[in-house]
Amino acid sequence: MTSRSRLQLYSFWRSSASYRVRIALNLKGLAYEYRAIHLVKDGGEQFRPEFTRLNPQARVPFLVDGGFALGQSLAILDYLDTLAPSPRLVPQEPALRARVLAFAHAIASDIQPLQNTGPLAYLTRELGVEEPRKDGWVRHWIERGLAALEQERAGAPDTPNVFGDAPTLADCVLVPQVYNVDRYRCDTSRFPRLYALAKRLESLPAFAAAHPSRQPDTPP
Amino acid sequence: MTSRSRLQLYSFWRSSASYRVRIALNLKGLAYEYRAIHLVKDGGEQFRPEFTRLNPQARVPFLVDGGFALGQSLAILDYLDTLAPSPRLVPQEPALRARVLAFAHAIASDIQPLQNTGPLAYLTRELGVEEPRKDGWVRHWIERGLAALEQERAGAPDTPNVFGDAPTLADCVLVPQVYNVDRYRCDTSRFPRLYALAKRLESLPAFAAAHPSRQPDTPP
C-alpha cells in the first residue's frame, strides 16, 4: 500500500463541501478511496451510529488518513497542503494568503451554510417554508455573496485562476458554489466574470473528475 | 504613530465574528481604533455607500491595516498571526493545526451563519417566521453543533484552553459562540465541558475586554 491509497474520503455526490475536497485531492494527484454517505436517503446515512462514532458532527466531507481523521472541508484542504505541497492551496505570501482565505470564507461561511441540506430540511419540516420561497432564500444568499466578490475584483485583470495563474483554495471553493448557481438558476448577470471563470475551471481535468455528475454514488 | 495604532477595526458590539477579532487583537496586544457599524439601526449601517465602497460584502468585522483591508474573521485572525506571531492562533504542527481549524470551522461554518443578523432578518421579513420559532432555529444549530464538538472531546483531559495550555483560533471562536448560548438560553447540558471552559476563558483580561458588554458602541 502506498502512502497515497491510505486516504479515504466520506463524500456525497451533490455535497458542495465534499466537491471542494475532491477537487483538491485531484489537483494534488492524491489517490483516495471513495466512501459514499447519502445525506437524504432514509433520514440521512450521516446520522447512522457507524458514521457518527467516526464523526460526531454527522457531516461530510470527512477524511481518514491512517489513524488520523478530520472533518470540515477547509480544514481538510489546509491539511492536504501538508501531505502534498504542490500545488499549494493556501499560499504563504501574507497578502495573497489573506485574500485567498477571505474569498474562500465568504463562500464557506456566508453562502454555503444557508443552502446546506440540514438547514433546508429544517426550513421545510420545522418552519413550513414551501419550495419556491426556499429556493428564493438560497438564490438570495448566493447572488448577494457572489455579487460582492465580483465587485471586489472590479478593475483586476482576468486570470486563469481566481488568484493568478495557479489554483488555490479559492478555486476549490468557487467551482462547487457555481454548481449550485446552476442548480438554483441564479441570476449570473450579477457576477458574470466569476461565473465565466468557474465555467472554464470546471472543464479542467482535476475539476471535471470531481464534478457531482461523475461520482460513484451519482444517481444514473 | 506606531505600527500598532495603524489598525482600524470595523465592528458591531454584538457581532460574534467581530468579537472573535477583538479577542485576537487583545491576546496579541495589538492596539486598534474601533469603528462602530450598527448592523440593525436604519436598515443597517453596513449597507451605506461609504462602507460598501470599502467592503462590498457589507459585513463586519473588517480590518484596515494601512493600505491593506480585509474582511472575514477567520482570514483576519490568520493575518494577525503574520503581524504579531505570539500567541500563535493557528498552530504550525500539522495534526494540532488541523484539529484547531476543524473546531473553528465547525462553529464558523455550521453554527454562526445560521444565527447571523442577515439570515435572521430574512426569516422574519421574507419568510414570516415568528420570534419563538426563529429562536428555536438558532438554538437547534447551536446545540447540535456544540454537542458534537463536546462529544469529540470525550475522554480528553481538561485543559486551560480548548487545545492545551495556550490560546488558539479555537478559543477565539468558542467564547463568542457561547455568548449566543447565553443570549438564546440554550440547553448547556448538551455541552457542559465546553460551556464551563468558555466561561472560564471569558473572565480572562483579553477576552473580558472584547466582550460585547464593554465596547464603545454597547448601548447603555
Secondary structure topology:
Two copies of one chain form a homodimer.
Chain A (H helix, E strand, L loop, with lengths): L6 E5 L4 H12 L5 E4 L12 H4 L9 E4 L2 E4 L1 H11 L10 H17 L6 H9 L5 H22 L16 H15 L8 H11 L2 H4 L12
Parallel strand pairs in A: 1-2
Antiparallel strand pairs in A: 1-3, 3-4
Give an overview in words.
The structure is a homodimer of 220-residue chains. Chain A has nine helices and four strands. By secondary structure, chain A is α+β, with helices and mostly antiparallel strands. The first copy, chain A, has a four-stranded mixed beta sheet, with helices on one face. In chain A, a hairpin with a 2-residue loop joins strand 3 and strand 4. Chain A is globular. At the A-B interface, strand 4, helix 3, helix 4, helix 5 and helix 6 of A face strand 4, helix 3, helix 4, helix 5 and helix 6 of B.
Structure keywords:
homodimer; 220 residues; alpha+beta; 9 helices
Helix/strand-derived category of chain A reads: alpha+beta
Q: Describe the global form of chain A.
A: globular
Span from first to last CA of chain A? 32 Å
The oligomeric state is homodimer
Order of helices and strands of chain A: EHEHEEHHHHHHH
> How many beta-strand segments of chain A?
4
Largest interface: A-B, 48 and 48 residues
Gyration radius of chain A, in Å:
17 Å
Instruction: Record the strand order, biggest sheet of chain A.
Output: 2-1-3-4
Q: So how many helices of chain A?
A: 9
